Amino acid sequence: MPKLITAGLGLLLALPACDTQDAGAGAPQATQTTAAAPQQTAAAAATTQASGLTDDAVVASWDGGNVTYGDLKNQIGSHLIQMEVEYLTNRYQTESQAADQLLTQKLIEAEAEKRGISPDDLVKAEVEDKTEPPTEDEIQEIYQAMQRQLRGRPLEEVRGPITQQALQRKQQQRFSEWVAQLKEATGAKVTVPFPDLPRLDVSVDDDPMIGNKDAPVTIVQFAEYQCPYCGRANDTMERILKDYDGKVRMVFRDFPLSFHDRAIPAAIAANCADKQGKYWEMHDRLMSNQRALTDSDLESYAKDAGLDLAAWNECRQDPAIAAEINADMEAGAALGVSGTPAFFVNGIMLSGALPYDMFAQIIDKELGEG
Asked: By C-alpha distance, which of 350, 354, 341, 343 is closest to 14?
């Protein structure tokens, strides 16, 4: 099998997220008050029973009492759901990638047989022979991107491997374009079915919402303003709202992590902007400036958003705002959220700054288009 075909085979779905474990922290807190133990009722109801046990089955006992499987689900139901979603999505991603790899191999073999040459010779003719050598600008681009790894070594010292990497990048791009042409010409497609994922009953509370309020798909996002993965996910959400205009609404719920010292002040700033009908104006500024969240920065963003600064500053001292943020965190914890960003697409939990295609597959299925 040509080496370009096998590149990337077996990759698993990455789940980049800011997590409480990143800093060895415990459960994140929005105030100094410890959040109450989460109620797992919705999670327990949605948890599949892979073990085949019924809710009244005894899983632990002692003289005078026992613990049932229902008790167990009430305790860790949301965690089990998160594990199941991650397993099913990882499996789907792996199967889809493998199916695409095998499809590509079969298409190349069929095309090679039609031309009377070997698959390797076909790839050489269509990819290697049709790829122009890298330009000096392309070499410089890779060299600049690798400055940290190269530790100041001059370009002339590493020109050989840098040039080879630039060539391989161009060959991979040419390979992808050529395979896309083969697929289009033959009507080829991957049809691995997207799995049915467990879902939870997730409240939108009275939190800020963007999009059509009557949209058939609701995405509830638990996130914060100092987590870089939330910033990355924000770009994905903007694209989804644009591409699915009228079909999707997004609700933002606060989940500031304890080891991000400016996450709570930023959340308060956004919620106080909401009191003046300018939540999303502040939200966008905070997401775009995650490394600049000092009090003076926040005040600057409030001015840019056209807020009444006196009312906004007064709001920031209101304990009710911190209480609202804490309530969001308790709700997220009860659903199994332990890091940011976390999403619930019509109740289907997705963790991390996942690629656009993952959301699109679920949304399309919810819309009956997948």
From this structure: 354
Distances (CA, A) of 348 to 34, 97, 111, 338: 28, 22, 41, 16
For residue 216, cis peptide bond before it (omega within 30 degrees of 0): no
Contact between residue 205 and residue 331 where contact means Cβ atoms under 8 Å apart: yes
Neighbours of 167 (CB within 10 A): 17
Q: Is the distance from CB of 14 to CB of 359 less than 8 angstroms?
A: no
Q: At what angle do helices 319-334 and 263-274 cross, to 10 degrees?
A: 110
Global pTM reads 0.72
pLDDT tens digits for the chain (370 residues)?
455 555 443 334 445 778 765 554 433 343 333 333 334 444 555 554 556 789 999 999 999 999 999 999 888 877 788 788 889 988 998 999 999 999 999 999 999 999 999 999 999 999 999 999 999 999 999 999 898 888 889 999 999 999 999 999 999 999 999 999 999 999 999 999 888 888 888 999 889 999 999 999 999 999 999 999 999 999 999 999 999 999 999 999 999 999 999 999 999 999 999 999 999 999 999 999 999 999 999 999 999 999 999 999 999 999 999 999 999 999 999 888 989 999 999 999 998 899 999 899 999 999 997 6
**Roughly how many angstroms between the first and final C-alpha of the chain, as a whole number?**
32
127, 171 Cβ separation under 8 angstroms? yes
> How crowded is the C-beta side of 263, counted as CA atoms within 13 Å?
27
- Topology annotation, domain 209-366: Glutaredoxin (3.40.30)
Q: In this structure, are residues 268 and 321 in contact, taking their beta carbons and an 8 Å threshold?
A: yes
CB atoms within 10 A of CB 33: 10
Cβ atoms 17, 342 nearer than 8 A: yes
Q: Would strands 58-62 and 342-345 be described as parallel, antiparallel, or unpaired?
A: unpaired
Q: How far apart, in whole angstroms, are the C-alpha atoms of residue 347 and residue 73? A: 18
Q: Indicate the domain borders of the chain.
A: 38-93, 97-186, 209-366
